[in-house]
Write a structure and sequence with these properties.
Number of strands: 10
Order of helices and strands: EEEHEEHEHHHHEHEHEEHH
CATH class: Alpha Beta
Oligomer: single chain
CATH superfamily: P-loop containing nucleotide triphosphate hydrolases
Number of domains: 1
Strand order of the largest sheet: 6-7-8-3-9-10
Shape: globular
Number of helices: 10
CATH topology: Rossmann fold
Length: 253
């Protein structure tokens, strides 16, 4: 693994009981790039995304074979520290899910869990991360009001801020704009491109136009297999695989 890669996945298979959800996945995720995962519903995109921070561990019948190397270490080794992994590899979900607490408490939740209790330091983290997600000017006068009073787009940016507050290296996003209107979606897309200067981003999206607009590389999944991964422009203009072309041109899916 060279310094340009964050993850290297080798021969990854994932099972839920007897059902095989992922089949022999091999790919590299490059640092400070946006990698988009596309494909029809139920093809394994979100399952694959969750293997990168071991969220599938929460499903008792899940079982993994193969390697997921993060900074050169296999995160599925028995003694690997999952808490540290999830600090470094954060996650933003499909529906905005702020805690039913104040805006401020949402942002400082993670830093507090990791032992930061100094008020000046927490204040600085709140201002810095809310500025990073372009939300500070909109909420600075309501930091101590409920986050549930924010609009859907603001809530999703707050959830991204909550993820960034613990200083991760990688941000996983599972269809982060599918519940949002076009204006809020556009703001999140602009934000992702800004964040990629500092973070590695992996996004599952049903929206192929979105993948085309924001990602550096795109991986196409089908029936639990990764059919191909290439620079986004190549995937959309001259894919290597006929099945990728059929999906992108709308022949199925």
């Amino acid at each position: 693994m060279d310094k340009h890669e964050t993850f290297e996945i080798n021969g990854l298979n994932l099972y839920y009981g007897d059902f095989q959800a992922l089949r022999n996945i091999n790919l590299e995720i490059k640092r400070n790039e946006i990698t988009a995962l596309i494909g029809p519903s139920g093809c394994g995109k979100s399952t694959f995304l969750r293997t990168l921070n071991r969220m599938n561990d929460l499903i008792p019948i899940s079982r993994v074979e193969g390697e997921v190397l993060y900074d050169g270490n296999n995160i599925y080794e028995k003694d690997y520290d999952v808490t540290t992994l999830r600090k470094k590899v954060g996650m933003v979900f499909q529906k905005p899910n702020p805690f039913p607490k104040t805006v401020y408490e949402n942002v400082v939740y993670g830093p507090k869990v990791h032992g930061i209790n100094d008020k000046a330091q927490l204040d600085a983290i709140v201002e810095e991360t809310l500025k990073e997600v372009a939300l500070w000017d909109e909420v600075k006068d309501r930091l101590h009001k409920s986050a549930l009073g924010l609009s859907g787009g603001q809530q999703q940016r707050l959830c991204i801020a909550r993820c960034l507050a613990v200083d991760p290296e990688v941000v996983l996003m599972d269809e982060p704009t599918s519940a949002l209107d076009p204006i809020a979606t556009s703001k999140i897309e602009d934000l992702m491109q800004d964040l990629a200067e500092k973070y590695t981003i992996v996004i599952v999206t049903h929206n192929m136009q979105q993948a085309g607009r924001i990602s550096d590389r795109t991986a196409f999944f089908l029936m639990g297999e990764m059919i191909e991964i290439n620079p986004t422009q190549k995937i959309f203009s001259r894919p290597d695989n006929k099945r990728t072309e059929d999906y992108i041109t709308g022949r199925f899916g």
